[in-house]
Design a protein that fits this description.
By secondary structure, the chain is mostly helical. It is 76% helix and 0% strand. The protein has six helices and no strands. Helix 2 runs antiparallel to helix 4 and helix 5 runs antiparallel to helix 6. The longest helix is centred in the first third of the chain and has 52 residues. The termini are far apart.
Length: 238
Protein backbone atom coordinates (compact mmCIF):
# COMPACT_ATOMS: atom_id res chain seq x y z
CA UNK A 1 0.00 0.00 0.00
CA UNK A 2 1.51 3.40 -1.00
CA UNK A 3 2.71 5.71 1.75
CA UNK A 4 0.23 8.45 0.91
CA UNK A 5 -2.61 5.91 1.04
CA UNK A 6 -1.47 4.72 4.46
CA UNK A 7 -1.39 8.34 5.64
CA UNK A 8 -4.91 8.94 4.36
CA UNK A 9 -6.14 5.77 6.05
CA UNK A 10 -4.56 6.78 9.37
CA UNK A 11 -6.19 10.22 9.13
CA UNK A 12 -9.60 8.68 8.37
CA UNK A 13 -9.29 6.23 11.26
CA UNK A 14 -8.34 9.05 13.62
CA UNK A 15 -11.32 11.05 12.40
CA UNK A 16 -13.57 8.02 12.83
CA UNK A 17 -12.46 7.50 16.43
CA UNK A 18 -12.94 11.19 17.22
CA UNK A 19 -16.43 11.32 15.74
CA UNK A 20 -17.47 8.06 17.41
CA UNK A 21 -16.29 9.48 20.73
CA UNK A 22 -18.45 12.55 20.14
CA UNK A 23 -21.48 10.31 19.49
CA UNK A 24 -20.89 8.36 22.69
CA UNK A 25 -20.52 11.54 24.73
CA UNK A 26 -23.77 12.84 23.29
CA UNK A 27 -25.57 9.62 24.26
CA UNK A 28 -24.15 9.80 27.79
CA UNK A 29 -25.21 13.46 28.06
CA UNK A 30 -28.78 12.56 27.06
CA UNK A 31 -28.91 9.90 29.77
CA UNK A 32 -27.58 12.45 32.25
CA UNK A 33 -30.26 14.93 31.16
CA UNK A 34 -33.04 12.48 31.94
CA UNK A 35 -31.55 11.52 35.30
CA UNK A 36 -30.89 15.11 36.33
CA UNK A 37 -34.27 16.26 35.03
CA UNK A 38 -36.32 13.67 36.91
CA UNK A 39 -34.15 14.16 39.99
CA UNK A 40 -34.72 17.92 39.90
CA UNK A 41 -38.47 17.44 39.51
CA UNK A 42 -38.59 15.14 42.56
CA UNK A 43 -36.50 17.54 44.69
CA UNK A 44 -38.45 20.64 43.65
CA UNK A 45 -41.83 18.95 44.06
CA UNK A 46 -40.84 17.55 47.45
CA UNK A 47 -39.66 20.96 48.64
CA UNK A 48 -42.86 22.64 47.46
CA UNK A 49 -45.03 20.01 49.19
CA UNK A 50 -43.07 20.39 52.43
CA UNK A 51 -43.40 24.18 52.24
CA UNK A 52 -47.11 23.83 51.51
CA UNK A 53 -47.55 21.65 54.61
CA UNK A 54 -45.75 24.22 56.77
CA UNK A 55 -47.81 27.08 55.35
CA UNK A 56 -51.25 25.54 55.60
CA UNK A 57 -53.01 28.78 54.66
CA UNK A 58 -50.87 29.53 51.62
CA UNK A 59 -50.39 27.01 48.79
CA UNK A 60 -49.14 29.55 46.23
CA UNK A 61 -45.61 28.07 46.33
CA UNK A 62 -46.93 24.64 45.36
CA UNK A 63 -49.12 26.14 42.61
CA UNK A 64 -46.19 28.13 41.18
CA UNK A 65 -43.97 25.06 41.31
CA UNK A 66 -46.48 22.87 39.51
CA UNK A 67 -47.45 25.48 36.92
CA UNK A 68 -44.06 26.99 36.10
CA UNK A 69 -40.99 25.51 37.81
CA UNK A 70 -41.57 21.86 36.88
CA UNK A 71 -42.72 22.66 33.29
CA UNK A 72 -39.62 24.85 32.80
CA UNK A 73 -37.40 21.96 33.96
CA UNK A 74 -39.21 19.62 31.56
CA UNK A 75 -38.89 22.13 28.71
CA UNK A 76 -35.15 22.45 29.35
CA UNK A 77 -34.81 18.65 29.23
CA UNK A 78 -36.85 18.43 26.01
CA UNK A 79 -34.87 21.11 24.18
CA UNK A 80 -31.48 19.89 25.40
CA UNK A 81 -32.27 16.26 24.60
CA UNK A 82 -33.46 17.10 21.10
CA UNK A 83 -30.39 19.24 20.42
CA UNK A 84 -28.08 16.44 21.54
CA UNK A 85 -30.02 13.85 19.52
CA UNK A 86 -29.69 15.96 16.37
CA UNK A 87 -25.99 16.54 17.02
CA UNK A 88 -25.36 12.82 17.52
CA UNK A 89 -27.33 11.88 14.42
CA UNK A 90 -25.54 14.50 12.33
CA UNK A 91 -22.16 13.11 13.35
CA UNK A 92 -23.34 9.53 12.84
CA UNK A 93 -24.66 10.32 9.36
CA UNK A 94 -21.37 11.97 8.39
CA UNK A 95 -19.50 8.85 9.45
CA UNK A 96 -21.89 6.63 7.49
CA UNK A 97 -21.91 8.74 4.33
CA UNK A 98 -18.31 9.93 4.18
CA UNK A 99 -15.79 8.37 6.57
CA UNK A 100 -16.73 4.69 6.45
CA UNK A 101 -17.11 4.59 2.62
CA UNK A 102 -13.66 6.15 2.19
CA UNK A 103 -12.08 3.65 4.55
CA UNK A 104 -13.81 0.77 2.78
CA UNK A 105 -12.68 2.13 -0.58
CA UNK A 106 -9.06 2.25 0.52
CA UNK A 107 -9.20 -1.26 2.00
CA UNK A 108 -11.17 -2.49 -1.04
CA UNK A 109 -13.68 -4.34 1.11
CA UNK A 110 -16.57 -3.51 3.47
CA UNK A 111 -14.80 -3.45 6.80
CA UNK A 112 -16.49 -0.41 8.37
CA UNK A 113 -20.27 -0.89 8.36
CA UNK A 114 -21.55 -0.01 11.85
CA UNK A 115 -22.82 3.54 11.26
CA UNK A 116 -24.03 2.68 7.77
CA UNK A 117 -26.11 -0.13 9.25
CA UNK A 118 -27.53 2.09 12.01
CA UNK A 119 -28.48 4.98 9.73
CA UNK A 120 -29.98 2.83 6.98
CA UNK A 121 -32.07 0.79 9.41
CA UNK A 122 -30.29 -2.45 8.56
CA UNK A 123 -29.65 -2.88 12.30
CA UNK A 124 -32.21 -2.04 15.00
CA UNK A 125 -31.49 0.90 17.29
CA UNK A 126 -33.22 3.11 19.84
CA UNK A 127 -35.19 5.25 17.41
CA UNK A 128 -38.77 6.52 17.14
CA UNK A 129 -40.36 3.89 19.41
CA UNK A 130 -37.38 3.22 21.65
CA UNK A 131 -36.86 3.85 25.38
CA UNK A 132 -35.47 7.35 24.84
CA UNK A 133 -38.56 8.48 22.94
CA UNK A 134 -40.76 6.89 25.61
CA UNK A 135 -38.95 8.87 28.32
CA UNK A 136 -39.25 12.00 26.19
CA UNK A 137 -43.01 11.46 26.06
CA UNK A 138 -43.15 11.07 29.84
CA UNK A 139 -41.31 14.37 30.29
CA UNK A 140 -43.81 16.10 28.01
CA UNK A 141 -46.74 14.47 29.83
CA UNK A 142 -45.44 15.59 33.23
CA UNK A 143 -45.01 19.12 31.90
CA UNK A 144 -48.61 19.13 30.67
CA UNK A 145 -50.28 17.58 33.70
CA UNK A 146 -48.57 19.51 36.52
CA UNK A 147 -50.26 22.91 35.85
CA UNK A 148 -53.69 21.24 35.82
CA UNK A 149 -52.96 19.41 39.07
CA UNK A 150 -51.83 22.68 40.66
CA UNK A 151 -55.05 24.52 39.77
CA UNK A 152 -57.32 21.65 40.83
CA UNK A 153 -55.44 21.40 44.14
CA UNK A 154 -55.25 25.12 44.90
CA UNK A 155 -58.63 26.48 43.78
CA UNK A 156 -62.18 25.68 44.71
CA UNK A 157 -64.00 24.61 41.59
CA UNK A 158 -66.47 27.49 41.74
CA UNK A 159 -63.57 29.98 41.74
CA UNK A 160 -61.90 28.70 38.60
CA UNK A 161 -62.40 31.25 35.81
CA UNK A 162 -60.66 32.20 32.58
CA UNK A 163 -58.09 34.39 34.37
CA UNK A 164 -57.05 31.46 36.59
CA UNK A 165 -56.82 29.11 33.63
CA UNK A 166 -54.86 31.65 31.57
CA UNK A 167 -52.32 32.39 34.33
CA UNK A 168 -51.73 28.90 35.65
CA UNK A 169 -52.57 26.50 32.80
CA UNK A 170 -52.85 28.12 29.36
CA UNK A 171 -49.60 30.11 29.51
CA UNK A 172 -47.42 27.16 30.68
CA UNK A 173 -49.10 25.01 28.04
CA UNK A 174 -48.39 27.66 25.42
CA UNK A 175 -44.68 27.34 26.23
CA UNK A 176 -45.01 23.57 26.00
CA UNK A 177 -46.65 23.93 22.57
CA UNK A 178 -43.70 25.98 21.34
CA UNK A 179 -41.21 23.35 22.51
CA UNK A 180 -43.33 20.45 21.20
CA UNK A 181 -43.49 22.17 17.81
CA UNK A 182 -39.70 22.49 17.76
CA UNK A 183 -39.29 18.80 18.67
CA UNK A 184 -41.90 17.65 16.13
CA UNK A 185 -40.38 19.83 13.41
CA UNK A 186 -37.00 18.19 13.85
CA UNK A 187 -37.94 14.63 14.75
CA UNK A 188 -37.14 13.42 11.23
CA UNK A 189 -33.53 14.44 11.82
CA UNK A 190 -33.02 11.42 14.06
CA UNK A 191 -34.92 8.92 11.92
CA UNK A 192 -33.32 6.25 9.77
CA UNK A 193 -32.97 6.92 6.05
CA UNK A 194 -33.47 4.20 3.42
CA UNK A 195 -30.49 5.38 1.39
CA UNK A 196 -27.23 6.87 2.63
CA UNK A 197 -26.41 9.88 0.45
CA UNK A 198 -23.11 11.80 0.32
CA UNK A 199 -22.74 14.98 2.36
CA UNK A 200 -23.83 18.05 0.39
CA UNK A 201 -26.83 16.47 -1.32
CA UNK A 202 -29.30 18.39 0.85
CA UNK A 203 -29.98 15.93 3.64
CA UNK A 204 -28.75 18.26 6.37
CA UNK A 205 -29.16 21.64 4.73
CA UNK A 206 -32.23 22.51 6.84
CA UNK A 207 -31.25 22.38 10.47
CA UNK A 208 -33.36 22.98 13.61
CA UNK A 209 -36.61 24.38 12.27
CA UNK A 210 -39.76 25.46 14.09
CA UNK A 211 -43.03 24.12 12.69
CA UNK A 212 -45.98 26.55 12.87
CA UNK A 213 -48.27 23.80 11.58
CA UNK A 214 -47.47 21.57 14.54
CA UNK A 215 -47.76 24.56 16.89
CA UNK A 216 -51.34 25.35 15.89
CA UNK A 217 -52.33 21.69 16.01
CA UNK A 218 -50.79 21.17 19.45
CA UNK A 219 -52.23 24.43 20.77
CA UNK A 220 -55.79 23.59 19.68
CA UNK A 221 -55.52 20.06 21.10
CA UNK A 222 -54.19 21.29 24.44
CA UNK A 223 -56.82 24.04 24.78
CA UNK A 224 -59.61 21.53 24.08
CA UNK A 225 -58.15 18.97 26.50
CA UNK A 226 -57.69 21.64 29.20
CA UNK A 227 -61.31 22.75 28.83
CA UNK A 228 -62.63 19.18 28.96
CA UNK A 229 -60.46 18.24 31.94
CA UNK A 230 -61.41 21.29 33.99
CA UNK A 231 -65.10 20.93 33.08
CA UNK A 232 -65.11 17.27 34.10
CA UNK A 233 -63.21 18.07 37.31
CA UNK A 234 -65.76 20.73 38.26
CA UNK A 235 -68.65 18.37 37.56
CA UNK A 236 -67.10 15.53 39.59
CA UNK A 237 -65.68 17.46 42.55
CA UNK A 238 -68.57 19.85 43.19
Amino acid sequence: MPTNTIGALDALLAQYESLRDECLKSIEWRHTLFSAGFGSIIVVAGGAIALNNNLSNDSSALLFTLSYVIPVICIFVLISWMGEAIRCQRVSYFIASDVEPQINEILERNVMRWEIGLNSGAMPRDEMLGPSMFLLGIVGLVSGICPIVGVVHDYDMDKINFAVLANWIYFPHLLLCVVASYVAGNIKKIANVPKIEPIGTGYYHKYCKFSFRYFFVFFIIIIVLDYLFVTISIAVLR
